[in-house]
Fold this sequence. Notes:
The protein is mostly helical. It has a single domain (3-319), classed as ABC transporter involved in vitamin B12 uptake, BtuC, CATH 1.10.3470. Helix content is 71%, strand content 3%. It has helices at 3-24, 28-53, 62-81, 98-120, 126-145, 171-194, 196-206, 208-213, 218-244, 254-267, 274-290, 297-310, 314-319; strands at residues 85-87, 90-92, 155-156, 246-247. Strands 1-2 form a two-stranded antiparallel ribbon. It has a two-stranded antiparallel sheet with strand order 3-4. Helix 2 (28-53) runs parallel beside helix 6, helix 2 (28-53) packs across helix 10 (254-267) and helix 10 crosses helix 11 (274-290). The longest helix has 27 residues, at 218-244. It is globular, with a radius of gyration of 19 Å. Keywords: Cell membrane, Membrane, Transmembrane, Transmembrane helix. It is a multi-pass membrane protein.
Amino acid sequence: MSRESLFGALILAGIGGVALGAHLLDEPFTVTLATRAAILALAAVGLNIALGIGGLVSLGHAVFFGLGGYAMGVLASHAQSFTPLEIGPLSLAGTKSMPVIWLTATLAAALAAIPIGLLALRTSGVYFIMITLAFGQMFYFFSISWSAYGGEDGLSIYVRNGFPGLNTLVPIQFFSLCFALLSAALIFAWALRGSRFGLALNAARQSPDRVAAEGHDPQRLQLWGFVISAALTGLAGALFADLNRFVSPTMFSWQMSGEIMVLVILGGVGRLMGPVAGAALFVTLEHWLGGLWDYWHILLGALLLVVVLFARGGVMGWLAGEGRDG
């Protein structure tokens, strides 16, 4: 096992250990913090597929995070009010079943990523960044005006959704679900990176002309990477909304997109465990520094600057012993 893999496994186990220890000490708030870290890490795992493997710098992944959240909110609110969900001529029942909500959130994010990706991938560089950012702002302002589901005030879900055999209102049980999904996503990302598709996607990032010469369509590879990335981020959005039992337009905001990207950069772009390290560090700083100073983001920005300048490969690269020039 490499040094990077060892430290990555320790960080992942550390999140689980903190949650278990907090549960045994009857500290539900700390369990909730660990759950938040696991969910944000899952969202960052999604972005890391597009950014780290495909080289797609997306500032609009909050679109998929928010779609996942609103998929949960809309379905759960109709189940909560015992009213059907009207979609054109269709009349569907709401649901409080987590597996159904997860599937809906994942599909909604993936389907939305297809037209967004098709349009954005007609460009590259800063233009790709701006188009994805524009889509994020479009969804943000749409959700503000969507008065049927709370508009600017958001939508509250009074009881957390259910999973067969578990009491999801118990913090450690809900954490276990989120941690299991994060672990599954990491295994999936590891398998994807070493698969033929993952290798072709990485090649499309480095040399699209050579990939095209081999008979592959680099834009199609990037589109499917973008869709897969969006699906994982949408799943994280549904979990995040369930954690808070609340969904609001802020899930679509450009700040949310930036936060997910910061997690990837802090942990290490393209590193398998980078999102986990970035999320754990971010939530820790948010909790400790946020209680000391209202402007703690200044310190986060300084840390991000140090990581970008001196820690090649982010926190995981630094732990692996890679310096700026190494």
